[in-house]
Design a protein that fits this description.
The protein has 129 residues and is an alpha+beta fold. It has one domain: Roll (Nuclear Transport Factor 2, Chain: A). The chain has helices spanning 4-22, 52-60; strands at residues 33-40, 48-50, 69-79, 85-94, 100-112, 115-125. Strand 4 and strand 5 (100-112) form a beta hairpin. The protein is globular. It starts with a helix and ends with a strand.
Length: 129
């Protein structure tokens, strides 16, 4: 069962994701993702990759177009009967032209020897109906 400290650490993981990616500190990706993490950005036509090295390569590619700012909100942490910890959240991204986009993140997080990490992160782009 998750205690308050776990929930706070998971919230901080989502916040740290935004700080690291916005600062373009690609070398810190292992602070966010487990060794076998799945990172699904197919909604952005970026495919799905596995592991911190592949995520770092995706983030740092010359054609990568990152928003200026990532903001995490509406964070809901739940635990399945088998102990799987899931996080549902919304993300706001602010582009260089001031335009704002919204995503839904569906995450699975795991406790590692170094703290909580994403085992799986998938983004669903919010679009007008």
């Amino acid at each position: 069962m998750l205690d308050t400290a776990d929930r706070l650490a998971i919230h901080e993981l989502l916040g740290l994701y935004g700080h690291i990616i916005d600062a373009r500190e690609w070398h810190r990706v292992s602070e966010l993702f487990s060794a076998d993490a799945r990172y699904d950005m197919r909604e952005f036509n970026l495919g799905e990759v596995r592991g911190p090295e592949a995520i770092r390569a995706l983030w740092s590619a010359p054609e990568a177009a990152h928003p200026l700012a990532h903001h995490a909100t509406n964070i809901v942490v739940s635990e399945d009967a088998d102990g799987t910890v899931r996080v549902l959240s919304k993300g706001l991204g602010v582009g260089p032209n001031g335009r704002v986009g919204s995503v839904i993140y569906r995450d699975v997080v795991v406790r590692t020897a170094h703290g909580w990490r994403f085992a799986s992160r998938a983004a669903e782009l919010r679009r007008a109906p």
